Amino acid sequence: MAALAKEPVVKNDVESTTSYFKHSIYQKLAANVAKDAVEEAITKKLDVKFLLSTSNNTIRLADLGCAVGPNTFTSLQSLIDTIKNKCQCPDFSSMPEFQVYFNDQPSNDFNTLFTSLPVQKEYYAGGVPGSFHGRIFPSNYLHVVQCNYALHWLSNLPEELEDNNSPAWSKGKIHYANAPDEVLKVYARQWAKDFNDFLNARAKEIVPGGLLIVVMPSIPDGMPYSELANGILYNCFSSVLLDMAKRVT
Amino acid sequence: MAALAKEPVVKNDVESTTSYFKHSIYQKLAANVAKDAVEEAITKKLDVKFLLSTSNNTIRLADLGCAVGPNTFTSLQSLIDTIKNKCQCPDFSSMPEFQVYFNDQPSNDFNTLFTSLPVQKEYYAGGVPGSFHGRIFPSNYLHVVQCNYALHWLSNLPEELEDNNSPAWSKGKIHYANAPDEVLKVYARQWAKDFNDFLNARAKEIVPGGLLIVVMPSIPDGMPYSELANGILYNCFSSVLLDMAKRVT
C-alpha cells in the first residue's frame, strides 16, 4: 500500500507532454483489471428498477479522486453502458437519465477536465470539489460510486513524521519502505482513520442498494515493504529532492 | 438589451488586478436591486414543505452563468438564508440539506471558482459546465434557479452579421446601437430563439412549484438604442479594435 499525503495537483494541460492526461496508463490498466468484476456486480447485484423508483428515473454516479481524465471518462462510460444493458429488458418502459459527478480536491484542474468532456456524452456532468474523506454529497443521494486508484492518498501528513524529537521521525524520507516500525505504524494509523472517514461519508451519501467500487494498489501478505516497487522509486525520489535542497541552502 | 455573442471567458485569477472577481460590482448592484423581490417570492410563493416531500429533504439551487464569483456566492447564500428562515417554523422537523450548482460555459474558470468557495459554506457545491441554452440537468430536478445578469449573452453570432453580401452585415461593429433595422432584427431574432431554448430547458429541469429568477438589463419602452450607455461603450470598443486590427495587417 502506497501512502503519501496528496499535494495539490498542479494545472496540467491536456497537450503538455508531462500532463497526467497523457501519463495515466498505469491507472488505466489497474481499472481495467477490475472491469469484469465491476460489470458482474452491476449485472447481478444492482437492482436498477428499485433504485429508479425513488430517484425520478435518474441514476447518479460519482468518480471520487477523478483527476483530469481521460480514464475517468472511459471508466464511467463503461459503468453507464453496463447499466443501460440492464435497462433494455421489457421491465423498463424508458431509458433512465444519467447524472455523473467528477470529484477531486478543489486544487484539481477542473478546467482541463471540463473542456475535455466527451462531446457526445450521454449524461449530465458535474464537478464536485472537496476531499472524499469528508461529506461532499447530500444524504441518500448516489447510486454507483467508484474510487479508482485514489484511496491510497492520505488526508494529511501525520505530524510525527516531521518531528525530529519523535521516534516516528521519517528523516527526510517520503515513503515508508525500509523505515522503522514506528514510522510504519504512524502511516498505517493515518490511513486507517482516513479509510474509516471515507466509508462513514459514503455510508450516508449512497442510497440503500447502491454500489461502492474501490480499486486500489495492494501487496501480497508477507511481502516486505522494502521490496515494493513504489518504495524503491520514492526512496530514489527523496534522494534526488534532498540533493536539490542542499544546492539551494 | 445588450446582445453580444459570448466569447470563452479567459482565466482570471482572483488576485489579478483585471479579474472579473474584482470587477463585478455592476453585476452585484443589479442583483441587489432584485433582492427584495426575490425574498418576497420565496417567502410568499415557494412551498418548501411540498418541495422537500419529493426530494429526500434536499433543496437544490443553481446559478446559471455564474462566472467566477464572488457575486454567485453571496446571492446564493442569500437565497439559502431566506429558505432557512421559512424552515424555522414548527412545521419542519429538521433543517433541509442544500445542494448548490454553479453553471457556466466549459471555458469558464472553474478552478478559480472552486478554490474561492466560502470555507464555512452550508451546502454541497457542484460545478456544471455547459450552455444554459440547452439541457444541463436531469428532468424535474431543481427547486430554485437564478440567472443573474447573464441571459443577455447570445448562444452564437448570427451569420448574417458577418456576411458582407447580407443587408444585415454589421460592418465591423460589435453592437447594434446606431445600426440599421436589418441588423437589429437579426440580433432580436437570435435572442428570441435563445430565450425560448432557455425557457424550454428550464421547464424540463425545474420541478413543479419551483422558482426561476432572471435578473437582466433592460431599457425603458421607446428609448432609442443609440442612447444606450452600453451601445456607446461598445461602439467605442469596436473603433479601438478596428484600429488595432489595421496596425497588424
Automatic annotation (TrEMBL), chains A, B:
Protein origin, superkingdom: Eukaryota
Molecular function GO labels: methyltransferase activity
InterPro entries xrefs: MeTrfase_7, SAM-dependent_MTases_sf
Protein name per UniProt: S-adenosylmethionine-dependent methyltransferase
Originating species: Jatropha curcas
Phylogenetic lineage: Eukaryota, Viridiplantae, Streptophyta, Embryophyta, Tracheophyta
